[in-house]
Amino acid sequence: MDEEVQLKNIKEFLQNYNKITDDCFSQCVYTLTQSRLTGEEALCASNCVQKSKFVDQKCMQAFIEHQQQSMQKFVEESSQKQAEQEATVVDSNISDTETKEIVKQESTK
Questions:
Q1: In angstroms, what CA-CA distances link 62 with 9, 20, 66?
Q2: In principle, which of 1, 27, 28, 62 could form an S-S bond with 45, CB 3.0–4.6 Å?
Q3: How far apart are the first and last CA of the chain?
Q4: Can you tell me the distance from the alpha carbon of 35 to that of 17, in angstroms, rounded to the nearest whole number?
Q5: d(C-alpha 71, C-alpha 79), whole Å
Q6: pLDDT tens across 74-103, in order?
């Protein structure tokens, strides 16, 4: 299982890397006649990669915060449902006890 997860993570990383590379290349490289990037192209590519990393980090932070809020809401709802179930059991036990007392009193008359 660990190996499958690792392969999935590597595949996801490579897909993300390839997407960033393709996007930044498309946005920043204008001349294909030279073997090296121009200064302007290199700066554009660097900024593009930095911006992509920044956006990825912000998205991940938002995702983590959303997951934490969802988990907290789930825990609160579960606690509330458990408390309601416990209250129902207590009410049921009280009703059973009262019924037994009434039956007992009726039978002694």
A1: 20, 20, 6
A2: 28
A3: 71
A4: 22
A5: 12
A6: 999 988 888 888 777 666 666 656 555 655
